[in-house]
Amino acid sequence: MGGDNEKRVRREMGDSLFSLDSSPDQIFENEAMSMQQNAELPTIPDEPLDVLVVAAHPDDAEISVGGTILTSLREGKRVGILDLTDGEPTPRGTPQIRGAETRAASEILGISWRGNLGLPNRSLRNELASRRLLAEVFRLTQPRTILTHHWEDSHPDHVAASVLCDEARFWAKLSKTEMKGEPYYPPRLFYYFSIHLRNHPRPHFVVDISDDLDKKLTAVACYESQSLNVPRDGRCSIIDDIRDRARYWGWSIRSAFGEPFVSREEIGVSTLDDILSPA
Predict the structure, then answer these.
(1) Is residue 225 in some structural domain?
(2) How confident is the model at residue 278 (pLDDT cuts 50, 70, 90)?
(3) Is 127 helix (H, G, I), strand (E, B) or coil?
(4) Is 32's pLDDT higher than 50?
(5) What gap in Å lies between CA 87 and CA 26, rounded to an integer?
(6) Residue 42 lies in a domain
(7) What CATH number corresponds to the domain at position 67?
(8) How far is 201 from 193, CA to CA, in rounded Å?
């Protein structure tokens, strides 16, 4: 490695992370560890949340469950979003740009709270430190329902986020621990589908978002750096895909638009009216 190149890497990564004997894998591991040290608890809302959406990156919540968020808010529920990473780097984004886009989308949605754990993008993992931070958020926000990524996805960060939620949910109820907050076990955990894996989901229920799709897409469009509204190969954009999928799931429940979910546990209802679709 040339001297100038070595100096550049030292400036970017720090002397403590770099040595001439380091392999590319070791350098990546050390960089991820350094980024992990930047993770910390966000400011916690004053009141417990009814719904907490846990997303790997800013824009995942808007894309996957933006309609459900809006529907829940109209019902008077307190809804929060926890982004695990800042989503950067990306080809056209920076942490500052992505942060501004996230604030704009949050304002459109009108959510009760949004936080970011500051975990490393592209190398999100189910590590003990990350699990503890997420469990502390669950203990402190006490959500009645958690929504997070389905465990099958082509994006490794989405898969890691799903596993982290499963295990942090269990950890959140532990006693005799130094974790912040009181022991708490979130009663419900549902999984949403992201847009990367081109499979055919079999959801357990679909939320009718017919009255909220337009506002959802307005929130999604805030993420201009992610080129979500740019046609690919001269054809459809990602926002076109989001609308088309929502239309399909709406059709599946005899409505206009919908968002699908999966549950690993049985879902209880008080009456058949809770599950009957409109004629």
Answers:
(1) yes
(2) low
(3) coil
(4) no
(5) 23
(6) no
(7) 3.40.50.10320
(8) 8
Q: Measured in whole angstroms, how far is the alpha carbon of residue 178 from the centre of its chain?
A: 26
Spatial CA neighbour of 150 closest among 160, 141, 142: 160
Residue 145 and residue 207 in contact, taking contact as beta carbons nearer than 8 Å: no
Q: Residue 5 is encoded by which pair of tokens? A: 């190149």
Q: What is the pTM of this model?
A: 0.85
Report how many domains make up the chain. 1
Task: Classify residue 227: in a domain, yes or no.
Answer: yes
- Detail the DSSP E strand segments found in the chain: 51-55, 79-83, 113-116, 145-149, 188-192, 205-208, 258-263
Residue numbers of the domain that contains 247 = 51-262
C-beta neighbour count of 169 within 10 angstroms: 23
Residue 162 lies in a domain: yes
Name the DSSP letter for residue 90.
Answer: B
- Tell me the C-alpha distance between 84 and 115, whole Å: 8
Question: Across the beta sheet with 205-208, what order do the strands follow?
Answer: 113-116, 79-83, 51-55, 145-149, 188-192, 258-263, 205-208
Identify the band that residue 255 occupies on the pLDDT scale cut at 50, 70 and 90. very high
**CB–CB of 140/250 below 8 Å?**
no
Q: Which amino acid is at 114?
A: R
Three-state SS sequence of 155-171:
CHHHHHHHHHHHHHHHH
For tokens 């399909």, name the residue.
248
Tokens 């009718």 map to which residue?
208
